[in-house]
């Protein structure tokens, strides 16, 4: 009996499950879409976690009990065993919260069959899960998921897409299914736990547009409406979040450079950060940057590290080339005015 298993086989099956989830979700017409996609996502994660354990010579089985068959680890237990092998760029806590929410839906999907537009929330959770999967796959096994996918998809739809935050805000009424209200409450609790721990809420839930550009995070909404207390009190609960920049934006530039270390095989420097910051307007985005009113202090959130690490090598090279042209142009203008 091979208690460790073949990490190559586990990894191959994991990628196949993830590809199947993506393919099914993008089919124009597919009944039972959300349920199938969530099952495949969790299966892909379970196999990836077991591949990590196998690659580190750890068993992917529970200890065998007498007169009982061998049982492999559940995704949750595999996560617990594998999280010590996660790279620094992929913090396990928010990733686990995201998977917990998907697991809750899988285990209780029968309660959501008549929840109108609930799929918009599942889409955001699933898309975030795929990005987390991609990052872990790349960091641990040096395998790029995007190499196996063509993103030349044609986004068609009769109705415009719903906004996730708007959807959550509208699900606080008595007419909303209780399962939906409870699920949103669990999402809010997970978000609060991560914010308190100083973790990146973008690995819990990030809203993406069709270009796969991160545009909004639930944890950074100024006002979140529609989250109900678990005790069933009637009426919507409006939560105003007062954010302390020492908690939400704890990093200086040198901290970011140290955290990233290397990017696509090259040393990450102050110049590289300044280039990416200029190219992507990081200092103008309050999600990433906080500046003291006096103008003497600039600090950044942990989300900046995740954003930069998600950039492709082509994105980075393009930013460096554009920044060099910008500096030359500025130097020439300065020289002409002297």
- Give me the count of strands: 8
How much helix, percentage-wise, in residues?
40-55%
Shape: globular
**Strand order in the sheet with the most strands:** 1-2
Number of domains: 2
Description:
With 338 residues, the chain is mainly alpha-helical. It folds into two domains: 7-242, no CATH class; 246-337. 50% of the residues lie in helices and 7% in strands. Strands 1-2 form a two-stranded antiparallel ribbon. Helix 2 packs across helix 4, helix 2 (33-55) runs parallel beside helix 5 (119-141) and helix 4 packs across helix 5 (119-141).
Task: Describe the secondary structure blueprint for this structure.
Elements: H1 7-25, H2 33-55, H3 75-82, H4 92-107, H5 119-141, H6 164-169, H7 178-196, E1 206-208, E2 214-217, E3 223-225, E4 238-240, H8 245-248, H9 253-260, E5 262-263, E6 266-267, H10 270-280, E7 289-291, E8 298-300, H11 303-309, H12 313-337
Antiparallel strand pairs: 1-2, 3-4, 5-6, 7-8
Give the key terms.
8 strands, two-stranded antiparallel ribbon, single chain, mainly alpha, 338 residues
Summarize the structure.
With 338 residues, this protein is mainly alpha-helical.
């Amino acid at each position: 009996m091979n208690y460790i298993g073949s990490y190559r086989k586990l990894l191959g099956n994991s990628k196949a499950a993830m590809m199947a989830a993506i393919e099914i979700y993008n089919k124009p017409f597919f009944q039972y879409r959300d349920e199938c996609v969530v099952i495949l996502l969790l299966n892909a994660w379970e196999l990836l976690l077991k591949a990590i354990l196998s690659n580190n010579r750890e068993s992917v089985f529970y200890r065998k009990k007498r007169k009982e068959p061998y049982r492999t680890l559940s995704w949750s237990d595999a996560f617990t065993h594998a999280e010590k092998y996660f790279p620094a760029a992929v913090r396990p806590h928010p990733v686990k919260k995201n998977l917990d929410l998907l697991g809750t839906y899988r285990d209780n999907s029968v309660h959501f069959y008549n929840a109108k537009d609930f799929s918009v929330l599942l889409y955001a959770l699933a898309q975030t899960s795929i990005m987390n999967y991609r990052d872990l796959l790349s960091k641990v096994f040096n395998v790029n998921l995007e190499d196996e996918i063509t993103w030349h998809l044609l986004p068609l739809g009769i109705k415009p897409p719903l906004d996730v935050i708007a959807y959550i805000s509208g699900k606080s009424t008595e007419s909303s299914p209780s399962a939906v209200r409870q699920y949103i409450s669990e999402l809010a609790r997970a978000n609060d736990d991560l914010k308190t721990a100083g973790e990146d809420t973008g690995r819990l839930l990030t809203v993406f547009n069709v270009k796969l550009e991160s545009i909004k995070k639930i944890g950074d909404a100024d006002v979140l409406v529609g989250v109900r207390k678990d005790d069933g009190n009637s009426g919507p609960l409006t939560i105003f979040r007062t954010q302390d920049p020492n908690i939400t934006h704890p990093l200086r530039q040198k901290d970011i450079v140290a955290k990233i270390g290397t990017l696509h095989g090259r040393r990450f420097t102050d110049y590289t950060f300044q280039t990416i910051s200029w190219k992507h307007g990081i200092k103008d985005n309050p999600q990433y940057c906080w500046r003291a009113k006096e103008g003497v202090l600039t600090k950044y959130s942990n989300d900046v590290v995740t954003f930069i690490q998600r950039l492709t090598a082509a994105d980075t090279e393009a930013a460096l080339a554009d920044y060099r042209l910008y500096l030359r142009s500025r130097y020439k203008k300065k020289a002409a005015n002297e």
